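Board work, copied verbatim: OsmC family peroxiredoxin
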Amino acid sequence: MGVTVKASLGKTKYYTEVVAGENQLITDEPVDKGGQNKGFNPFEILATSLASCTAATLRMYIDRKEWNVEKINVEVDLENFPITKLAVFKRNISFEGTNLDAEQLKRLHTIADACPVHKILTNEIEILTKFS
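↓ predict structure ↓
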């Protein structure tokens, strides 16, 4: 699956308009980094990708199995360690309005790890840059 995202940043420090198809969002940097904190920062967007993909993947599976789960909560903490080139994603998943047994939870853990963003982040990544 291919995705194209376009980001445009003018002279207002670090207020960036991002467009993907018909959807738009704003990213920015926190005030202490020179931004105005008017949107998610890039690290928050990265963590958001994992959290939202995990929730959607779990919902698809739960609905297919016809399990009664009222709400899926996914919290992702991202810590970046540039010196050691290590990034650690801590993902906490909880469910509301249900009593899932141990076997169901084990299966859901496998499904969470099969979310497409999880797969991308745990596979080899290559970034090709071109100036035009």
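Residues 80 and 87 are 4 Å apart (CA to CA).
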